[in-house]
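Lecture 7 notes: from sequence to structure.

We start with a single chain of 111 residues. Read the sequence below before looking at the structure.
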Amino acid sequence: MDKKTLAIVSYITIIGWLIAYFQYKDKERDPFVIYHLKQSLGIAIISIILGVAINLVVSMVPALSVVVYANIAILVLWVLGILNALNGLKKPVPVVGPLFENKFAFLNVNA
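Now the structure, written as tokens:
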């Protein structure tokens, strides 16, 4: 797979991330792929945390079931990440993207 395809696949659920990671780790380390692996892993982590938090809140206060619509924000972040990868951009996704630019050292070029 080429680097753009790996970057796009990394956003398609955690299984896509794993496929992209294992395809990538055997090849020359490319900063573009690393960047999108970090962004997509960050979105996946935020998604899991948000999902657990929403389930806890809704189970305690059913009247707040409207909070479930926060999952749409995660979907938007994933779509924006895919569009950035598709266009060959190393641009962080809004709000949470900058948090993950310097995280996940195991993905770095010198690893």
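Residues 3-105 form one domain. Keep this in mind for problem set 3.
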